[in-house]
Amino acid sequence: MSWDKSLVRIAGYEVETVRKRLAEVVARREMAEMGLVVLDAQIEAEADFIRADPVAAFHHPGFLAGCKARRLTLLSALELVMAEEAGARDALVEAFETQKKYENVADGLARRRVQEAARRDTAELDEMGILRAGRRAAGT
Length: 140
Fold this sequence. Notes:
mainly alpha, 0% strand
């Protein structure tokens, strides 16, 4: 295998590695978003419970304070994951660009190899034609 094909393979591996990293980050973002949805559902369920049992309202301020703290934690984690996701997307774009550059180099080298082989074939055919023409001229 030539060096240019090796570079393309390495770049492809890098793209896949970054793609997997991005998928992991997206999954973590989705989990953080799901945590917010679950928290909202718990708050709504607690509100329904309080409507059904007014005595439970005594504990509601503490519950809401805990929910507020959890929400801040989840939002902070979500913000960090979103920043990481943006970085992973940028890294993926860069990996794709690098892979494309290597592919272009490899394609250019392959075209030059084909052109060089065609040039050599043409030169050999020209040389055979000249030798044949020389033999005919000598034999006439």
